[in-house]
Design a protein that fits this description.
The complex is a heterodimer of chains A (292) and B (379).
Chain A lengths: L1 H31 L6 H18 L4 H29 L3 H22 L15 E4 L2 E4 H23 L1 H11 L1 H6 L4 H27 L5 H16 L4 H22 L6 H13 L14
Antiparallel strand pairs in A: 1-2
Helix pairs in contact in A: 1-5, 1-8, 1-9, 1-10, 2-3, 2-4, 2-8, 2-9, 3-4, 3-8, 5-6, 5-8, 6-8, 9-10, 9-11
Chain B lengths: L1 H16 L8 E7 L6 H20 L8 E7 L4 H13 L5 E2 L4 H14 L3 E3 L14 E3 L4 H15 L4 E7 L2 H16 L3 E8 L7 H10 L3 E5 L2 H13 L6 E4 L5 H7 L7 E4 L8 H14 L5 H20 L4 H8 L3 E2 L11 E3 L5 E2 L2 E7 L2 E8 L5
Parallel strand pairs in B: 1-2, 3-4, 4-5, 6-7, 6-8, 8-9, 9-10
Antiparallel strand pairs in B: 10-14, 11-12, 12-13, 14-15
The chains are: A mainly alpha (292), B alpha/beta (379).
Family (chain B): Belongs to the leucine-binding protein family.
Pfam family, one (chain B): Peripla_BP_6
Protein name (chain B): ABC transporter substrate-binding protein
C-alpha cells in the first residue's frame, strides 16, 4: 500500500507538469485552431532563459525566474502569435502545423548552439527536504510542484469561468464570428490565450528542471506526452487536458512498477489508441463543442 | 565530378590564404556525440582530443606533420554515425576517432574494417571487439574486462549474496547487464531484480520502489550519465539504503555534478579517472580544468589518449599509413616514459582490447576518492 501511495504521489507530481503543458495544446486549439508541435520546446526554453539571466548576467535566482516567465510570454506568446501563427493561420491548419514543427527544431538547435548541449543543474525554489508520512517519503520540492501546478490550474479555471475576460475568451473559442458581432475583442482574446499558454509552459519549465535537469532535448518527450495527455483527456476541454496529464503521470509509474519497466513507455500510447478507438472526443471531451 | 571541381576550387582558394604547411596537415575525423543523449560524453572527448592534438602539434606533430581534427556530430544516433563514417572514409584518413556510444560504434565498425582504417573509439560494450575487426581499438575497458572486476568487488568487497541490477535499455546497458549477470552467476551471487530503464528517462520513482522491494544486498547501477544522476536523486529521496555499486560512469565527475549530494556514498570500479593516484593523470586533470573550466571524467581522458595512440603507432610503423598504424597498435605497449601523453602504461591485444591498471573508488563529500589500485590483467 505504501508503495502504491508513493507511486501515486510521484505520478501525480510528474502528471501535474504534463497537465500544465497539455493545457497549452487545448487553449491554442480552441481559440486559434493551432496545434503547436513546439509545445515541448516551449517547456524547455524558459529554464534556459532563467539560466542565461543567472549565469550570464548575474541576476539573482527569484528575479531570473520572473524574467524567464516574462521572456517566455514575449517570445513564446506575443512573437509566436504575430510572427508565426498570425500570417500562417490564413493558409490553413496544415502549414501551421508544419511550421510549429520547424519552430521546435529551431528552438532546440538554438539552445544547443548558444547555450550548451549538456544537461544543466537548475536551482530549486523549495529545498529537497524529505517528509515521511506513513512510510511514504515525499520531497518538499515534489509537493511544491504538485501544489504550484494545482493552484495554477484552479486559478486558470476560475479566470476562464469567473471573470469577464475569461468568458469573452470562452465566447471567442465557441464562435468567433458571433463573439465579434457581440463586441468581444476577438484578436485580443486570442493573444491572451497565447500569453497564458506561454506562462503555463514557463511554470512547467521552472518546476520540472530542478528535478529532471535542464537540457535542450527535454521537449521531445514532454511535448509528445503532453500531446497524448491532451488527446486522452479531451482536446477541446481544459479540464480534459488536466485529467489526461495526471492520468498519464500516474499510469506511467504504475505500469513501470506493476507491469514491466521495459514497456512503461508503451502504456500511455496503448491508452491513446484505446481512447481514439472507443472515445475519440477524449475522456472528458465533448463532441463538436468548443470551450476553453 | 561537380564535387571534385568544387574540391579543387576550394583547395585553390584555400591555398591563397592558408599558412604554409596547411595543405599537408593530417586530418583525423572525430565522429562523436556532440548532441543528443551523449552530448556530455562527446564534449569531454572533444576537449580531451583537442588538447592532445594541440600538444602534439606544438612539439612537431606526427612524423613531422601537423594534425587537424574534424569534428562530426552523430547526434547520439547510430544511423547518423554510420552515414558520417561513410563520408569520412571517402577521404581515406589515417585514422578515425569515435564514436563513444557503443550502439554507434557497432553500426560503424564494419565500415572501418572494410576501409582498413584504424578506429580509436570510446565504446565499452563487450561484443565490439569480438566481431573480428582488425581495425577497432578501445580507449577504455570493454565490459568483458570491467564486469569481472566489478563482480569480484561485489563478492569480496561488498560481500553481497544477492544483487539487483538496474540498466539502461541500449547497447551499452544491455551489454553490461548481460556481462554482469554472467559473472555474478559464476560467483554464486543471485540476481534478485533485473530492471530495465529507458535512455532519457526522467522519473525513476517506480524503479526505485522495485529496488526497495527486491531487498538485495547491493544494487548494481549501469546507466548513462544523466540518467545515473536522476536515479541517484530519486534513490536518495526514497531513502534507498543499500550499497549502490557502479562501473566508472556512476562515479564520474559529470554524475557527481548533476546529482549533487545524492552521489555521496556510491562505490565501484573506475577504469579511468583523473583522481587516480598517478601523477601524470592528475597533471592532465589540472591542465584540462584550467583550459576548459570543468573537471574531466574518463571520457576526457579517453579522448586525450586517442591522438597519442596514433602518434606512437605511426612512429613505430615509421609511416603515416592507416593499415600500418593498425598493425603497429596490435600487441603494442605504450609507456608514459616514452609517450607521456598516454598517461598510464597501456597494452592493446590483437583484438584492440586495452589492458592497464584500474581502480576501486567511492564518492565522498561530492568528490571521487580512489581507495585501491587494481593491477593490469596480464602482468
Amino acid at each position: 500500500m505504501t508503495d502504491f501511495l508513493q507511486l501515486l504521489i510521484s505520478g501525480l507530481a510528474t502528471g501535474a507538469i504534463y497537465a500544465l503543458a497539455a493545457i497549452g495544446f487545448t487553449l491554442l486549439w480552441q481559440t486559434s485552431q493551432t496545434i503547436n508541435f513546439a509545445q515541448g520546446e516551449f517547456v524547455m526554453v524558459p529554464a534556459f532563459l532563467a539560466l542565461i539571466a543567472m549565469r550570464w548576467f548575474g541576476v539573482p535566482f527569484v528575479p531570473s525566474l520572473l524574467l524567464a516567465i516574462l521572456g517566455s510570454m514575449l517570445l513564446l506568446g506575443v512573437a509566436f502569435r504575430y510572427v508565426i501563427v498570425g500570417p500562417l493561420i490564413r493558409r490553413g491548419v496544415l502549414p501551421l502545423v508544419i511550421s510549429t514543427i520547424a519552430l521546435s527544431i529551431l528552438l532546440k538547435e538554438s539552445v544547443k548552439d548558444f547555450y550548451s548541449a549538456e544537461a544543466q543543474t537548475f536551482p530549486t525554489l523549495l529545498p529537497d527536504t524529505l517528509i515521511t508520512v506513513a512510510g511514504v517519503s515525499v520531497s518538499l520540492a515534489q509537493l511544491g510542484v504538485l501544489a504550484v501546478a494545482l493552484v495554477t490550474i484552479v486559478l486558470l479555471q476560475w479566470f476562464l469561468a469567473g471573470t469577464r475576460t475569461g468568458r469573452q475568451m470562452q465566447a471567442t473559442a465557441q464562435n468567433p464570428t458571433v463573439a465579434r458581432i457581440l463586441g468581444v475583442p476577438v484578436e485580443r482574446m486570442i493573444l491572451y490565450t497565447f500569453l497564458i499558454n506561454a506562462a503555463l509552459a514557463a511554470m512547467a519549465s521552472l518546476l520540472v528542471s530542478p528535478i529532471y535537469l535542464a537540457k535542450f532535448s527535454n521537449g521531445e518527450t514532454l511535448g509528445l506526452i503532453a500531446f497524448v495527455a491532451a488527446i486522452v483527456g479531451g482536446f477541446n476541454q481544459v479540464r480534459g487536458a488536466i485529467a489526461g496529464g495526471l492520468l498519464i503521470g500516474v499510469l506511467d509509474n504504475l505500469a513501470a512498477a506493476y507491469v514491466s519497466t521495459a514497456y512503461r513507455q508503451a502504456i500511455p500510447l496503448i491508452l491513446l489508441v484505446l481512447v481514439i478507438l472507443f472515445r475519440p472526443q477524449g475522456l472528458l471531451g465533448r463532441k463538436e463543442e468548443r470551450a476553453v | 565530378m561537380l564535387r571534385k571541381t568544387l574540391a579543387v576550387a576550394g583547395l585553390a582558394i584555400g591555398g591563397l590564404w592558408a599558412p604554409a604547411g596547411f595543405a599537408q596537415d593530417i586530418v583525423i575525423p572525430n565522429i562523436i556525440e556532440l548532441s543528443g543523449g551523449g552530448a556530455t560524453v562527446g564534449a569531454m572527448w572533444k576537449n580531451g582530443s583537442s588538447m592532445a592534438v594541440e600538444e602534439i602539434n606544438a612539439s612537431g606533430g606526427i612524423l613531422g606533420k601537423k594534425i587537424k581534427l574534424e569534428f562530426i556530430d552523430t547526434a547520439s544516433d547510430p544511423g547518423k554515425a554510420r552515414a558520417a563514417m561513410q563520408r569520412a572514409l571517402d577521404d581515406k584518413p589515417i585514422a578515425i576517432f569515435g564514436p563513444i556510444y557503443s550502439g554507434s560504434v557497432s553500426a560503424t565498425l564494419k565500415l572501418t574494417a572494410d576501409a582498413e582504417v584504424p578506429q580509436v573509439m570510446g565504446g565499452e560494450a563487450g561484443p565490439l571487439t569480438a566481431q573480428g575487426s582488425k581495425y577497432i581499438f578501445r580507449t577504455s575497458f570493454g565490459q568483458n574486462v570491467s564486469m569481472p572486476k566489478i563482480a569480484n568487488y561485489l563478492r569480496d568487497g561488498v560481500k553481497a549474496k544477492t544483487v539487483a541490477v538496474v540498466y539502461v535499455n541500449n547497447d551499452f546497458g544491455k551489454g553490461g547487464r548481460d556481462a554482469i549477470t554472467k559473472e555474478l552467476a559464476a560467483r554464486d551471487i543471485k540476481v534478485v531484480a533485473d530492471i530495465s530503464t529507458e535512455a532519457g528517462q526522467a522519473d525513476f520513482a517506480a524503479d526505485v520502489i522495485k529496488l526497495k522491494g527486491a531487498n538485495a544486498d547491493a544494487i548494481f547501477v549501469y546507466l548513462n550519465e544523466e540518467e545515473s544522476a536522476r536515479f541517484l536523486r530519486e534513490a536518495k529521496k526514497q531513502g534507498l539504503n543499500k550499497p549502490l555499486i557502479g562501473e566508472t560512469t556512476l562515479l564520474g565527475q559529470k554524475v557527481i555534478e548533476l546529482a549533487g549530494d545524492a552521489a555521496n556514498g556510491v562505490k565501484g570500479h573506475v577504469g579511468l579517472t583523473v583522481d587516480a593516484p598517478v601523477p601524470a593523470i592528475q597533471e592532465f586533470g589540472k591542465k584540462y580544468e584550467a583550459k576548459y573550466k570543468s573537471k574531466p571524467d574518463h571520457n576526457g581522458v579517453k579522448g586525450y589518449i586517442a591522438p597519442y595512440m596514433i602518434k606512437a603507432a605511426a612512429e613505430k610503423a615509421g609511416k603515416l599509413d592507416a593499415k600500418a598504424i593498425a598493425a603497429a597498435l596490435h600487441g603494442m605497449t605504450i609507456t608514459p616514459d616514452k609517450v607521456p601523453g598516454i598517461l598510464i602504461e597501456a597494452t592493446w591485444d590483437d583484438k584492440g582490447e586495452i589492458d592497464r591498471i584500474s581502480f576501486l573508488g567511492e564518492v565522498k563529500d561530492g568528490k571521487q576518492v580512489i581507495t585501491e589500485t587494481l593491477p593490469k590483467l596480464n602482468k
